[in-house]
Protein 1
Amino acid sequence: MWENKTQSVPQRIVSLTQPHIRPIVRGKAGKPIEFGAKLSVSCVDNYVFLDKISLENFNESCHLKEQVEKYKETFGYYPESVHVDKIYRTRENRNWCKERGIRISGPKLRRPPKNVSEEEKKQAHSDECFRNAIEGKFGQAKRRFSLKSRDDKTP
């Protein structure tokens, strides 16, 4: 680093006991860096499918189309809806889903409306409940299936 005048070293070893683990900058409050695998999953009828796993950082939004197409290949039709994090709700992904008749969860990419119908509120609540179940699966994968690194101090 001194000779090359750089501030970082790609593929650096941060754990002697787990040399394959890399720090992933997440930018979350109280925990800007996480260790362990980064997952991208889909859930169909309470079955969870692991679509992508990586010890390197990656942008999940780039993989939405690939995952939906994989769903269509497996089941023969597009899903009615996809329940995604904010990072997936790009204009490109929204338009792509709209062209295929797929409802994408979450608010639209504009200022929130002042008056929201009861039906829209119920749908938003239902989507959030489904998302909570998915987030729980990430925690389960880390706790139960050893995807948490030994350096990760998360309870």
Protein 2
Amino acid sequence: MLHNIKAGLSAAAIIAGLGVGIAATTPAQAADQSPWQIRARALLVLPEEDMTGYNNAALAGSDVRISDSIVPELDITYFFTKNIAAELILGTTPHNVDVKRTALGNLDLGHIWLLPPTLTLQYHFAPDSKFRPYVGAGVNYTIFYGQGGEKSPITDVSYDDGFGWALQAGVDIPLDDHWMLNVDVKQIFLSTTATVNGAIKADVDINPLLVGVGVGYRF
């Protein structure tokens, strides 16, 4: 997945860079425009997984694999000023997890759902133009739930919830005074400790790249 992350971050950099020097091409929003905005996106989730530590020699030389996913996402944005906003990103995503090349062979750890609400603080470069790029940074807290489907000799798998960091870049393209198209790229820095069969522990970086396309509405 490394090439996916590099490509996504390159795209994010291009989107952010286009914000510099864009002149206003549409009338300014009315003074009484609501500071609230919502978006709905289709989200492609691309984990860049890596096992960084373990407590059992059976995992020496092994490699974790976490499947990609496509899910719906909702975000809510509040504008403090025309340029500065906070965005709360809501969505949940399912993944299959495997461990390859262990001392016991390839192991199927079943499926898991991730609920990673993420809050970012954003800067919008050209809030009155026809092309409105922004960048953001923030924090997320990931909750793991719904795990199951393990295959023998695995009988139980659990994951530690925890905090992570997020970087973001995107662009809104207005259709009228309220509706807009949106493209958004986020890099989430997320790690967890997985416990297998109540005793074997492994530290895993998940670090998903999130690529979203959707529509938004400014109230």
Protein 3
Amino acid sequence: MVIAPLRSRRPGAPRTSPGATAGVDIANCPFCEGHEERTPPETFALGPPDRAPDTPGWLVRVVPNKFPAFAPDLTGPPRHVGLLESRPARGNQEVVVSSPRHVSSLAELEPKEIVRVAEAWQTRAAEATRRGFPYVQAIVNEGHEAGASLSHSHSQLLWLEAEPPAVRQEHALDQDAGGCLVCRLLEEERGHRERVVAMEAGVVALATYAAREPYELLVVPESCEENPFESIFLAPALILAASQLARIHKLEGAVPMNLWLHAGAHWHIELVPRITVPAGLELGAGLYVNPLAPETAAERLRAAG
């Protein structure tokens, strides 16, 4: 990662537009309460016990992704053609609608709403395990540039048969280092506090040292836990991430954002605002140029509270 503050001053520096969201027509939003017939039948919901499925009155609603990349009924062995291999994309993909009210960001949710989102994640992860999908990838995309097709706040749960490549790489680094690197990182970062943004309810938010984007954050429980879907710290971690996202919005506007949860080893949340545009250097050389030093990002976020 290359930290280059002067790059932000160059003429015509590409940047995503604050508030750039897709599908903002609330009257036609399929995720709003009262529009339940516009989604596939729900697989889970939180709400009054006497509420009928696919009717108003829910607090959090989970539905199958209408356009999934993974499907549970795909089977078959890997296929090899010379150097190349393909296999069925077996899995399951669900959408977790954060709230019946039309809000466009995790940053706009109330803490009690985020607690319910965490409960939905944990309930559906348990069901995924029961049905033979041991790894669940939780993601949040906000804004068109970050891959969101609808503006109503939601997350996605991808049920997978094995750890995805990025998670496997993290665990391999732990094994090579002979222990948990996240624990060591937390100890060092709390020692000098330059990049510590906030510490609340057993969870720490750090400005990522080798950040790809301005204000990229790592949100980690202080205790070393493998399974976020059985952790009491999942809801506090999401609440802390949302509060820091609100500060980013205060500083930069409602920028697009990606958030994901990595389970296993020392679980953590990564939050990446989409403020700059990856170009040839990033995509072709694997060198990411960030115009904002993480120490400066942490200082600004602390001051924005």
Protein 4
Amino acid sequence: MDIKNNKGTEITNLDSWKNAFLEVDHEIHWKVGRSAYSLAYHFTTPTIDNSYGLQCIKNSLCELGFHNIEFINAEIEHESKFDCFRNGRIQDIIIWAKNNNQTIVIGIEAKVDEVFNESIAKAYLEAKNKWKQNPRSNAKERIEKICSKYFPDEPIEEIDIRYQLLYYLEGTIAEAKKVKGMAYMPILVYHTDDYNDKIGCKNKSAFEEFMKKMNFCSLKSSLQSTSHYHNKIDGVNVFCSYIEIEKEIKNI
């Protein structure tokens, strides 16, 4: 599978992933034990085509009933545009795959114990304050538009789910629509030495609250460390997984 960054720089191993990452992101985000490094290690070890990361994704898709998966290409730090405003959702890595004749867009969110940012209510309050200072800011209008789609009868100030998960969903659906395919959103949680159990549990609860609020159906999983969900939104089949990666993978 070919992997590049969003500038077209090719990735062949962990070192080249680091170089490609630093071309498009900040050095402070590249640290052993944190999500960017852990994701890179997971998807380059022992090699890219036989990586633990691809096997993890393949196993989860198999549990969801999708076999014969062929990974085509991928891009780290990919921007998924989902509305008319300037900045889209930044995917930690997006993978385009095939299952027989169906295209699967896999938008991956990597975490250690980093939180899913603020709630929609808090993000909206901050956006309104920013708009008062700078009426050219689009953040307020973006939140209003996305909330009018999913929560037309609810005051935005009372919506307590995490905003990052909502635009993660919107961005991945937009990518699936482009190729008339299916959307898969695995959240990979790496239990490194830096992982904080208390924060991790809160993050998982925030994800579960989001799934419930968005009317996703819970699906069976044979693994205690993995939970699966499904919904159909805007005509797109959307599958989500919350996958906890334990420290058996050396050096993560």
